[in-house]
Amino acid sequence: MRLIKKTFLVINGLIIVVVTSILLVLYFAMPIYYTKVKDKEVKREFDQTSKQIKGKTVTEIRDILTKKINKDNIWYSLVDSDNQLLYPSLQLLDGVSESKDSQNVNIVTTFDNSYSNVKVMSQKVTLRDGKKMTLLGQSSLQPVTDASKVLLDLYPSLLMFSVTVGSIVAYLYSRTSSRRILSMSQTAKKMVNLEPNLTCTIHGKDEIAMLASDINRLYASLSTSIKSLQKEYEKASDSEREKSEFLRMTSHELKTPITSVIGMIDGMLYNVGDFADRDKYLRKCRDVLEGQAQLVQSILSLSKIETLASQNQELFSLKSSLEEEMEVFLVLSELKHLKVTINLEEQFVKANKVYLLKAIKNIIDNAFHYTKSGGQVMIQLKDNQLVIKNEAETLLTQQQMKQLFQPFYRPDYSRNRKDGGTGLGLFITHQILDQHHLAYRFVVLDQRWMVFTIDFPSHHDD
C-alpha cells in the first residue's frame, strides 16, 4: 500500500474513533455532571436562605421568602412544629417526609414520567421568639435526556463533517510528506550512480528532515571515502607503472655489462686477438662485475625503502648526526682542495634515521663530487631547513633537472660509471624524502651554485 493511501486511511480512522468516543462520553457523562452541579447550586442557595431567616419573625420571613420567588430556582415553604403551613398558603407536598429531630438538610430525589428531577430540602430554624420552624425547599431540575438525544441526532452530521475535513487535511498532509520522501528517493537513486554535488533538500526539523540530513552526511562521507580510494588506486597504479619501468631499465642496465663480460670471457677462452692477454681482461671483467655488484646492492636497498622508510621513526638531533658524518667528507674536500663552510643549528627531526641520513649523504656526496677543484661547498641547517650549496663544475640545464630524479639517469658529462655511479643515488634520495613527506627542491642559483633544499617540520626535544 502506498504511503499516501496509508496515511489517508489512518488519519480518517483516528477521526472516526475520536469523534465517536467524545460523543459517547458526552452522552453518558453529561446528565451525571449536570445533576451534580445543579445539586451543589441548589444546596448553596437553600443554605444561604436558611441562615438569612434565622432569628427573624414570621412576618420578616414571609417577606424574605416572597422576594426570593423570582430570584432563586427554589420554591420555599415554612411549617411550624405542628406541621401547620405558615408560608405559603398551600398544602405540604406529598412525598416529603422529615425527621423532627433532624438539624441537617435532607435531599430527596424523585423522578416522574417527564424525566424531570425534583429536589426537596428541609432545615430546622429558630425564630426570634424561640419557636422552632421547618424551612422546606423544592427545586425542579430541567431534564437533560433531550440533550443526549440531540447528541445522537447530531452524530451522523458531526461524523460526516469531521471525516470530510479530516480527509482534506489528510490528503494535503500525505501529499506534502510523500512529495518530500519521493524527492529524497529520486536523489538517493542518483547517489547510487555517484553523481557529484547531490544533496537532499531539508525542510523543517521533523524526522523526514533528520533523515534527509543523515542521507546527506552519509553520501558526503561515502564520496570522501571513494575519492580517497581513487587516489590510493591511482597512486598504486603509478607505483606499479614505476616498478615496471624500473625493472625494464634495470634489465637494460644489467644486460649490457653482462654481455660485455661474456664476450671478453669467450675471447679469452678462444684466444682471439688481444683477448689472449688474460690477465688484462680478467681485471676488466672484475671491474665490470664490481660495478654490477654495486648496482645490485643499490637495487636491493631501493626495494626496502618503500616498506622501511616510514617505519621505525624516531626523534633525533639532525645536527649531531650530520656532525658525525661530515668527517669523511672533510677528508674528501682536502683531496680536491675544496673550501667547505658548515653552519649547523639544533634541529630535531622525526624520521627513520638510517634512511634519512642515507638520502642526505647522497646529496652531500654529489655536492662534493661535482664541485670544481678549489670550489666552495656550503652546508647550512637553520630555521627548519637544510641547504646544501656547491660551486658546480658543470651547471645542469632545465631539461636535465627534470630527469635528474629518474632511475639510472646520468647527465651527459658523467655517462661513465666511474664518474656517474649507478644512476640510482638521487632516485633513492627522491624515494626516501617522498616516504617521509618532506618538501625539497634542487635549483641553479646565480649561474654559479647548485642548491638543494629540504624543509623539515618543527619538532622539539621532549
UniProtKB/TrEMBL annotation:
It catalyses: ATP + protein L-histidine = ADP + protein N-phospho-L-histidine. Gene3D superfamilies: 1.10.287.130, 6.10.340.10, Histidine kinase-like ATPase, C-terminal domain. GO terms for cellular component: plasma membrane. It is a multi-pass membrane protein. The keyword Glycosyltransferase does not apply. It is found in: Cell membrane. It is an enzyme of class 2 (transferase). Its EC number is 2.7.13.3. Signal peptide: none annotated. Its main location: membrane. CDD domains: HAMP, HisKA. It comes from the Bacteria. Keywords: ATP-binding, Cell membrane, Kinase, Membrane, Nucleotide-binding, Phosphoprotein, Transferase, Transmembrane, Transmembrane helix, Two-component regulatory system. The keyword Membrane applies. One of its GO terms (molecular function) is ATP binding. The chain crosses the membrane at residues 7-30. This is histidine kinase. It comes from Streptococcus pyogenes.
